[in-house]
Please model this.
Amino acid sequence: MAAMLDGDLFGDNDAGVRHPLGAQAWVLRGVALPCMAQVRQGLDAVLAQAPFRAMHTPSGLPMSVALTSCGSLGWHSDERGYRYVHRDPVTDLPWPAIPPAWLALALQAAEEAGFAGFAPDACLVNRYVPGARMSLHQDKNEADLSAPVVSVSLGMSAVFLWGGHARSDQAARVALHHGDVVVWGGVDRLRFHGVMPLPDAPHPSLGRQRINLTFRHAGRPGAI
Ligand code: SIN
Ligand code: FE2
Model:
């Protein structure tokens, strides 16, 4: 299918449409658009307290994506490995709180995808510039894998890679646009996923960047 080859598996302009990616994984088109002004305000507030920083993989390779976090746990990577930490290693302060509008959006999207009662304690904020990518990986540093991952796309469009349970499984290409939300959990919680190198197509309001918010429950099951 030609549309699949250029990464546009589902097409544009379908806000409100839900596409299944698996038995418990969904692309929810445009779910973040109605609350975008508040989501953008939340981003400004988080970045004022915890700016984006460059990180390295445990093997010392620079990551092309810049990161920060909010919530009671934030994600960190260095030569000691990938892990969640309670304080921002850059400022030595607790991570900023998850903005209320972000929490409401994450809960709404999780519920729409069949995960009522989602209580995220961590939100990773990724910033992609043209050419930045994220190789296929599983989100498995979280203590609580019974909770889904909720992933919100802002700014430039990207091609999301949606793989299987083995790294070598063929990955589908899914175009993600400003305001789209992907939710995966349950039997699909450990699916490999990634992002192709970001094409250089500036976004009308966010410019030459793509911001991705991923909400998880990273701490012990039941704890917030
Ligand atoms: C991630 O897997 O952590 C990020 C996914 C994305 O940027 O869409
Ligand atoms: Fe991930």
User: Anything to note?
Assistant: The first helix runs from residue 2 to 5. Residues 137, 139, 193 surround fe (ii) ion (ligand 2) (CB under 6 Å). Residues 1-8 have pLDDT under 50 and may be disordered.
